[in-house]
Design goal:
Blueprint lengths: L2 H4 L19 E6 L6 H6 L2 H6 L2 E6 L3 H10 L4 E5 H9 L4 E10 L3 E6 L14 E4 L4 H13 L7 E4 L2 H10 L4 E5 L2 H6 L2 E6 H6 L5 E7 H6 L1 H21 L8 H10 L6 H6 L1 E2 L3 H4 L8 H15 L17 H8 L1
Parallel strand pairs: 1-2, 1-3, 6-7, 6-8
Antiparallel strand pairs: 3-10, 4-10, 4-11, 5-8, 5-9
Helix pairs in contact: 5-15, 11-16
Length: 331
Amino acid sequence: MSFKKILPAITIFSALSGATYAADKEISIAYQTVVEPSKIAQADGEYEKQTGWKINWRKFESGGEVITAVASGDIQIGYVGSSPLAAAASRESPIETIFIAAEIGEAEALVVRNGSNIKTPRDLIGKKVAVPFASTTHYSLLAALKHWGVDPKKVEILNLRPTEISAAWQRGDIDAAYVWDPALGKVKETGTVLTNSAEVAKWGAPTFDAWIVRKDFAKSHPDFVTAFVKITGKAYADYRQHGSGWTADSAQANKIARLTGANKADVPALLQSSIFPTLDEQISPRLLAGGTVKAISDTSLFLKDQKKAEQVLNDYRPYVNAQYAKKAAQL
């Protein structure tokens, strides 16, 4: 059965220059500079081709900024990390998780500047450590400090966006940073990794990235959300099957580098540093069918303990919706 027959409400886009769109078929989607497989579909215009919608792709530097834009209604679908997602759900924002974009590993890391005299975690005391607040790296930093028994109040933790981290690092204004690419690649050139999110996950604080949607938009346009998930899942399946061919000189690496600002040579290793779940894995008990709810709840408990969230809800199931991935998996 064809994609067109399964989703009759979605008009297959004819990729002609000067294409026009119906007024009710325009959406703003927030993406970040994370290296992940769906950047290929974005670069190739697959979302527009397969849905017939005009998509305004807007780049954001942190999940906290995406959450604010989604909450205001400026953005309908957005890419966020598990920490800002948990914080938003705890505030009962009108959002739901529709796709787990990445289970983060070495793609996010705490790097200490060469010459900063930071050799052990205890050496972070009194040092300036930059991190985007309310991000997955902020959550991982706090979790790492707790694991090491280092009081975060004794560390000068600065709230900087990734581009600001790169600039501050170049000026010598900070001693360490917990961040993702492309800023991560830049600070690693003159720094040493103290820990990464794969290691922090083993300490009991896993992190992930996700696509979220405004509940009102999803209710009004379920076919678009299903198509969005289907296209994203197809990109992930393609990487899982053919990723060994996504070398530094490949077209895929070039497209990802262009959208993210990452060094093309680093793209293959960055892709390998996270897990990108397929549609079948999305709807498994490990993720959208149960595990994601628990992960959001656990993250919220930690954020409240760290005084980064005012409340913890009794039930986070309303903020995870597996139905779109289930429908997409059937197509």
